[in-house]
Structures are given as structure tokens and as C-alpha cells.
Design goal:
The protein is mainly α. The chain has a single domain, classed as Amino acid/polyamine transporter I. The protein is built from 15 helices and 4 strands. The strands form 2 sheets. A two-stranded antiparallel sheet has the order 1-2. Strands 3-4 form a two-stranded antiparallel sheet. β1 (86-87) and β2 form a beta hairpin. The chain starts with a helix and ends in a 9-residue tail after the last helix. 45% of the residues are buried. The chain crosses the membrane at residues 32-53, 60-82, 120-141, 162-179, 185-209, 278-297, 317-339, 381-401, 407-427, 439-464. GO terms for molecular function: symporter activity.
Length: 478
């Protein structure tokens, strides 16, 4: 009997090891491929569309240099952040499920609240920005088809409102938001990553074709020319804003820990995450350089804020339509990548505060034809639907593209991509004050703070300028 009990216990332990991880949660199934897909979905977002405009403001030299610098900084700090997922040991320590948990384990104090404010404020801003961008792309498809059928002699004939498309996007997000957590998003991220490659490649191909076709718009080493393209003050503000746009284009540190928490182990999560970060950042940097540089070569100093709309609504209209559809599909997935941490944060807090509330904790199994059973939680349904509706309403009120992206990038890049990863590394590795490593890490942090401040100033000035001429509920093309 004793032997039977021993073997039974061994079988139960083996079953637990097979189905559950070391923290008692269901076995994680994420791989290098799925993590890379999450990163590419998060990084190659709507930011790629504004890079031609950003390089037009900065010029060939500064524009390409800033792109490369941001890519190196993002990859470097992402490796520091990946090592912070477990504490105190990066391989065998206790798991930290969110960015706030990581900061709590390594730094503590008021910095935890500061991290939460920066992270979740950024995530909310990104979901609003993606709602705006998705609607812009769908409006472009609608106007393109209208011009193709009615001609381009009178643009007012094809004026279109953004708001119905924002509403459709919101309905889709309400449905997808019922996906319980990040672990169930792999298929959506892979689809979104494919879409991002598709529209980036189309924009790149059209830019190359335009240059090869004999288009030689004015480009310079220093970008837009004062007194010709812009005034002196406009040059300064646009330079600041373009830096913010590029910072936004590398914005994925906000969800890095949540992505790492989906990885199976072994191999160690930090090693896989570093490889995924290298694959994701290097791939996106290559696309950014190609799209930004060829977009600038195609349009010159007059490059539009969204370079896919710069090809006009003419031939090949079907290809540009397809690219804009790809953008919309990609942003459907990207919205979820950035929204899921917000959903999880609120739901975890509410579960801890009201553990006896059936409305918050109870799961109901609902059979769905051809898909099996789906677990429904009433609180999750109500809260997530409310969130999507609120962000969509805000997007309708402030439908500004470049300035909004720049402000989000500037506000979040420094604290989440630079400050916290560096501070946690210094604390974890016990780097002595005023040592060589401590000094150069601090210099990097301070320089990035200065960059974020000027980028935020440029974006705020752009928003103020837009608000002066803004007319609510005005159709595109009026």
C-alpha cells in the first residue's frame, strides 16, 4: 500500500509538472516565434507610416542616425528588462507577471506607482491612436474607390466621415476583447505581423516605383528648408515632433514583460526574450529604414504624415486599397496586444478586492457552434466593452494623427524604455555609484530624458495648432 501511494503521488507530481508551471499557473506555450510575432505586431504599428515625414523634417543624415540610435537603445534596454522578469535570479527566481511587478521587486516605493502611471497611460494612448489610424486607413479605401468611380475633379463629392469606421473598429474590438488573456493572442499577433509586413512592403514598393519612374522631389541632408518649406519656428517644432514619432515607432517596452510571461521554459525565458527582441527590433529597423528613406526619396520635403496616403487615390488604386486594409487588420491585432495588459491589471485588482463577488469572479460556459465552449465572465464583458467604447469616443473627439503619435512616444519612451530598465539593472547588479558603468548608464538616461522633453514639446505645439483649426464631426475631404 505504501508503494502504491508513493507511485500515485509520483504520477500526480508528473501530471502537475506536465500541465502547470513552477508558479502553479497553466503551462505556458509561447515560443521564440510567437514572442517575435508579438514584438513585431507591437513595434511595426502605425508609427511606420509617419517615418517618411519624420525623415523629411530631419534630413538624410539626422533622420537615419536617429532611427538607428533609437533601435540600438531599444534593443539594449530590452535585454536589461528581460533579465528582470524573474527576481532575484534572472533564470530561477520568482516570476513577475507585469511591468509594475518587476519594478516592485527591484526598486519598490513610489516608483511602482510612477511605472503604473506611465505604462497604463501609454497603453491607453496607444489604443486611442490605433483607433484613429485604423479609421484613417478605411476612409482612404472608401475615398479611393469613390475617386476611381466618380473621378477626381471635385474632391467634395468623395468626402467621408471617420466616425462610422471608428464605430466598426470598436465593435470588432469589443468582440476580440473577450479573449481572456495574452496567452490566447498568438494567432492574432501572427496574423497582424503578416499584415504589417504586407503594407510596409507595398509602401516600400510604391516608393521605389515612384523613384524609378523619374520622380525627383527635393531632398536635402538637413530636411525641410527654412524659408522655403517651413518657417524657422516650424522647423524647430517639427524636428521635435519627428523625434517623438520615431520614439513611438519603437514603442514595445510597455508590453515586454507580458510577452515574456507567455514563454514556455526551458530554455530560460530571458534568453528566448533577448533573441526575440533582437529578431523583432532588427527586422523592424530594416523595414523602418527602407520605408522611411524610400518614402522620403519618393516625396521629398513634402512627404505626407501617412506616406501610404501620399500616393493619392489614383492608380494602382486596388493595391493601395489592399495596403490600407492590411493596416486596419494589423491594428485590430495590435490594439489587443496593448489592451490586454490594461484588462488584466483591472481584473486582477478587482478579483483581489472583491473575491466573493460572483459578478466579478464567476465564469459561465457557453456553447458556440463549431468552436466548442467559451467561458464568459460578466465583469470582463462589461468592463472591456466600456473601455473600448470610451477610447473610441476619445478618438472621435481628437482625430489627430502625427501629433498624437509623437506625444505618446515622447511621454512613454523615457520612463518605460530607458529609465526603469537602467535603474533596475543598476539595483540588481549592485553597480557602484560613480563607477564607469554607472556614469555612462546615467548619461544615457539623462540624454534620453532631454530628447523626450523636446519631443513632447513639439507634439504639444502640434496639437495646439491642430485644435485652432479643428472642426468636430467634419468629413474627410470637406
Amino acid at each position: 500500500m505504501a508503494n502504491q501511494a508513493f507511485y500515485t503521488e509520483k504520477l500526480e507530481d508528473a501530471d502537475l509538472a506536465k500541465n502547470f508551471d513552477d508558479d502553479g499557473r497553466s503551462k505556458r506555450t509561447g515560443t521564440l516565434l510567437t514572442a517575435s510575432a508579438h514584438i513585431i505586431t507591437a513595434v511595426i504599428g502605425s508609427g511606420v507610416l509617419s517615418l517618411a515625414w519624420a525623415i523629411a523634417q530631419l534630413g538624410w543624415v539626422t533622420g537615419t542616425a536617429v532611427l538607428m540610435i533609437f533601435s540600438f537603445i531599444t534593443y539594449f534596454t530590452s535585454t536589461l528588462l528581460a533579465d528582470s522578469y524573474r527576481s532575484p535570479d534572472p533564470v530561477s527566481g520568482k516570476r513577475n507577471y507585469t511591468y509594475m511587478d518587476v519594478v516592485r521587486s527591484h526598486l519598490g516605493g513610489f516608483k511602482v506607482q510612477l511605472c503604473g502611471l506611465a505604462q497604463y497611460g501609454n497603453l491607453i494612448g496607444v489604443t486611442i491612436g490605433y483607433t484613429i489610424t485604423a479609421s484613417i486607413s478605411m476612409v482612404a479605401v472608401s475615398r479611393s474607390d469613390c475617386f476611381h468611380n466618380k473621378g477626381t475633379h471635385d474632391h467634395k463629392l468623395c468626402s467621408v466621415s471617420n466616425y462610422p469606421y471608428m464605430s466598426v473598429f470598436a465593435v470588432i474590438q469589443i468582440i476580440l476583447s473577450q479573449i481572456p488573456n495574452f496567452h490566447k493572442l498568438s494567432w492574432l499577433s501572427i496574423l497582424a505581423a503578416v499584415m504589417s509586413f504586407a503594407y510596409s512592403s507595398i509602401g516600400l514598393g510604391l516608393s521605389i516605383a515612384k523613384v524609378a519612374g523619374g520622380a525627383h522631389p527635393k531632398t536635402t541632408m538637413t530636411g525641410t528648408t527654412v524659408g522655403v518649406d517651413v518657417t524657422g519656428s516650424e522647423k524647430i517644432w517639427r524636428t521635435f515632433q519627428s523625434i517623438g514619432d520615431i520614439a513611438f515607432a519603437y514603442n514595445y517596452s510597455t508590453v515586454l514583460i507580458e510577452i515574456q510571461d507567455t514563454l514556455r521554459s526551458p530554455p530560460a525565458e530571458n534568453k528566448v526574450m533577448k533573441k526575440a527582441s533582437l529578431a523583432g527590433v532588427s527586422t523592424t529597423t530594416m523595414f523602418y529604414m527602407l520605408c522611411g528613406c524610400f518614402g522620403y526619396a519618393a516625396f521629398g520635403n513634402q512627404a505626407p504624415g501617412n506616406f501610404l496616403t501620399g500616393f493619392g487615390f489614383y492608380e494602382p488604386f486596388w493595391l493601395i486599397d489592399f495596403a490600407n486594409v492590411c493596416i486596419a487588420v494589423h491594428l485590430i491585432g495590435a490594439y489587443q496586444v496593448f489592451a490586454q495588459p490594461i484588462f488584466g491589471f483591472v481584473e486582477t485588482r478587482c478579483n483581489k478586492r472583491w473575491p466573493d463577488s460572483k459578478f466579478i469572479t464567476s465564469e459561465y460556459s457557453v456553447p458556440i457552434p463549431f468552436l466548442g465552449e467559451w467561458n464568459i465572465n460578466l465583469f470582463r464583458m462589461v468592463w472591456r466593452t466600456t473601455y473600448v467604447v470610451i477610447t473610441s469616443v476619445i478618438a472621435m473627439i481628437l482625430p489627430f494623427f502625427n501629433d498624437f503619435l509623437g506625444l505618446i512616444g515622447a511621454a512613454s519612451f523615457y520612463p518605460l524604455t530607458v529609465y526603469f530598465p537602467i535603474e533596475m539593472y543598476i539595483a540588481r547588479a549592485k553597480i557602484p555609484k560613480f563607477s564607469f558603468t554607472w556614469v555612462w548608464l546615467k548619461i544615457l538616461s539623462w540624454v534620453c530624458l532631454a530628447v523626450s522633453i523636446v519631443a513632447a514639446a513639439g507634439s504639444i505645439q502640434g496639437l495646439v495648432t491642430d485644435l485652432k483649426t479643428y472642426k468636430p464631426f467634419k468629413n474627410v475631404g470637406d
